[in-house]
Automatic annotation (TrEMBL):
It holds the Pfam family LRR_4. It is found in: Cell membrane. It is a single-pass type I membrane protein. One of its GO terms (cellular component) is plasma membrane. Gene3D superfamilies: Ribonuclease Inhibitor (3.80.10.10). The keyword Cell inner membrane does not apply. The lineage of its organism: Eukaryota, Viridiplantae, Streptophyta, Embryophyta, Tracheophyta. Residues 8-50 form the Leucine-rich repeat-containing N-terminal plant-type domain. It comes from the Eukaryota. This is Leucine-rich repeat-containing N-terminal plant-type domain-containing protein.
Length: 238
């Protein structure tokens, strides 16, 4: 019974994808759901299963199909998916912040070469099994969240050719420059220094400024305290 419910979820996922995206070339035309035989969804274009006898999705690769629309919310029913490749299409909208909750076992997520906008969700840090996160060639904006540094299995991270800005988290300093190129507002390793000073220099300057401000405040309190004591010690004659 439990297996049947999982199979129904995967079928629901694929149905939702087909119904929510525009498919001008009919690449998904063979996605028919009238067949109830075991493993039928494993023969659909772009679909791979764990085994041929089991309708449990392992991989969904629909790259270069000219698909348009937003990332389908029905992906939340493909929970066993490990690879999602929708690169080279015309998908728009934002990267769903819930995608790691929808697909908790993702190893590869490739959304490159689409028309996605908005920020890179910090919630992508919840994709704890991810090895490859490719978001290059979109219109993503904002900064790269420090929380993505927590992706300990990440081997490839590419955000090239977007509209990102700010400092690249230190955990990516050994990555290839190519994976961050094409973002005029990004700085820091591996692209180089932020402005005329390195990130370390900026931290030293900021720390020094904060320390100086604290010292000035304490000095001011000390001065007023001393003045108050002198006033009490030498009251004015009446």
């Amino acid at each position: 019974m439990f297996h049947q419910l999982l199979t129904e979820d995967d079928t629901k996922c694929l149905k939702g994808i087909k119904n929510s995206v525009n498919d001008p070339d009919g690449k998904l035309s063979n996605w028919s759901f009238n067949n109830n035989s075991a493993g039928f969804i494993c023969n659909l274009v772009g679909v791979a299963c764990w085994t041929e006898r089991e309708d449990r999705l392992l991989s969904l690769q629909l790259r270069d199909m000219k698909l348009s629309g937003q990332l389908p919310q029905s992906l939340q029913y493909c929970q066993s998916l490990q690879t999602l490749d929708l690169s080279g299409n015309r998908l728009s909208g934002t990267v769903p912040a819930q995608i790691c909750s929808w697909l908790p076992y993702l190893v590869t997520l490739d959304l490159s070469s689409n028309d996605l906008s908005g920020s890179i969700p910090s919630e992508l840090s919840k994709c704890v099994y991810i090895n490859n996160l490719v978001l290059s060639n979109n219109r993503l904006s904002g900064s790269i969240s420090e929380q993505l540094s927590g992706l300990l299995r990440l081997k490839r991270f590419s955000v090239a050719n977007n509209d990102l800005k700010g400092a690249i988290p230190l955990s990516f300093e050994n990555n290839s420059k190519v994976d961050f190129a094409g973002n005029s507002g990004l700085c820091g390793s591996p692209l180089g220094k932020c402005g005329n000073l390195s990130r370390k220099s900026w931290k030293i300057i900021i720390a020094a400024g904060v320390s100086g401000a604290v010292f000035s405040i304490l000095l001011g309190f000390g001065y007023f305290w001393c003045c108050g004591r002198k006033t009490k010690s030498h009251p004015q004659a009446r």
